[in-house]
Amino acid sequence: MSERVHEGLVTLREMPRRGMITLRGDLGDRTLRRAVEAGVPMPERGRLTVAGARMAAWMSPDELLLMAPHEAILADIATLRTALAGSHHLVEDVSDARCLMRLEGEAVLEVLAKLSPVDFRDFGEGRFRRTLLAQVACAIGMVSPHTVDLIAFRSVTDYVWAVLENANDRAAPVGHF
User: Which residue, 126, 173, 172, 130, is CA-closest to 151?
Assistant: First the structure.
């Protein structure tokens, strides 16, 4: 896949496919925590953690989204399932069901605020949340001060790209945070 890029208020980039795992279970369980922390620190509520090419994001009280290089995902799933054997959990590869877009620049939160009901004024580095973007569900994580990763269902990739491109138009009004 060739990477789409759009320059406007920020740089909008469709990222290459990443490995993504949905992990559900008791996030307070020591065995589950150790299994996650073998690859990346355990995120707190509403947060994400990064270790090299890996990321863990808090999705809900019993769910994490784990990301890794696409070629590592099958081995990561096997490792997690082995570590969690005997405990109540779900480990599933959702790589093919999700797309990843990156927004980079000083106005990333302003661009997102045009499309989402979230108050982004205190949305800083390491924050992660699920929300709506225009009419579709997505997850948004601030991986650095001016970089946001947006995850959505792959089936709505073109729609998400189009609304982000429109919101990223330099002619569109921008609020102040």
Answer: 130
pLDDT tens profile 93-126: 999 999 999 999 999 999 999 999 999 988 999 9
- Alpha carbon distance 17, 100 (integer Å): 7
* Residue 105: closest CA among 142, 52, 136: 142
List own/partner pairs for 1-4 with CB under 8 A and 24 or more apart: 4/161
* Contact in structure between 87 and 25 (CB atoms under 8 Å): yes
What residues have CB less than 8 Å from 52, skipping those under 6 apart? none
pTM metric for this prediction: 0.90
Tokens of 10: 């920020």
Cα–Cα distance, 47 to 138 (Å, whole number): 15
Residue 69 burial by Cβ neighbours in a 10 Å radius (0-12, 13-18, 19+):
middle
CB distance 22 to 119 below 8 Å: no
The pLDDT value given to residue 137: 97
